[in-house]
Amino acid sequence: GIRSLLLQALHPLALAGVTRHSDYREDPLGRLQRTGAFIAATTYGSVALAERTVAAITTMHTRVRGTVAGREYSATDPRLLEWVHVALVDSMLTAYQQFGHDGAVDPDGYVADMAVVGKAMGVVDPPQSVRALHDVLAGFGPELCGGPAVDEMWDFIMNAPLPVALRPGYAVLARAARDTLPPWALGFAGQAPAPGPIRQTRAMVADAALRGLSWALVQSPAQAAGERRLGTVAPG
Q: Are the C-beta atoms of residues 89 and 20 closer than 8 Å to each other?
């Protein structure tokens, strides 16, 4: 989630939609929790729950529109929806490939599954494979940029004003998330990849932190419900 926010901020119209129509500054933890709730509902929820969640977000999107630097933006714009979608899918897949411990995942299958969600959200032709996902990301290159607004958003994401007890753990995850970004994304933000040994150390610390969280926390109720529902489906 942290990685996807950093990536999404590189599109000036998507960034304008967030900075002008979101309460992320006043309630950063709530903003992260709502994103997590969307992912949980569309990943583990029933079809009915996923459809209600998508419908609610789509309704909210109709109110997000305006003009920045002479260009109109709208949260219902299929192109912007596509950018948010591919940034999220690429980030979730990258994070799992580097830090996931719940078994092997079929990358193409994951992208194809997420395409179902993307299409429901209004993405016209979401990518169905990792190769197509990377092609779409590359195609957005001319639309992306850096600048003061991006620097400000990245600084906020990396140093979110969370409760004091959460900040050390969040800092570990945020640095590891940034390290997974490709050099071209870091370049837009005027940053360079950290040296290899530093990235490896950060990844090891983040991996240990995530393993600890996995051990300490109870299973997600949404995940448990989804697994129970799958268990009732007859093979074939």
A: no
Question: For position 232, what pLDDT does the model report?
Answer: 56
Q: Torsion angle, CA of 89/93/99/100, rounded to 10 degrees?
A: 110
Secondary structure, 3-state, the chain: CHHHHHHHCCCHHHHHHHHHHCCCCCCHHHHHHHHHHHHHHHHHCCHHHHHHHHHHHHHHHCCCEEEECCEEEECCCHHHHHHHHHHHHHHHHHHHHHHCCCCCCCHHHHHHHHHHHHHHHCCCCCCCCHHHHHHHHHHCHHHCCCCHHHHHHHHHHHCCCCCHHHHHHHHHHHHHHHHCCCHHHHHHCCCCCCCHHHHHHHHHHHHHHHHHHHHHCCCCHHHHHHHHHHHCCCCC
The string of pLDDT tens digits covering residues 72-113 is 999 999 999 999 999 999 999 999 999 988 888 999 999 999
Distance set, CA 192 to CA 152, 199, 211 (Å): 17, 12, 28
Under a CB-based contact definition with an 8 Å cutoff, are residues 181 and 8 in contact? no
Radius of gyration, alpha carbons of the chain: 18
The model's pTM: 0.89
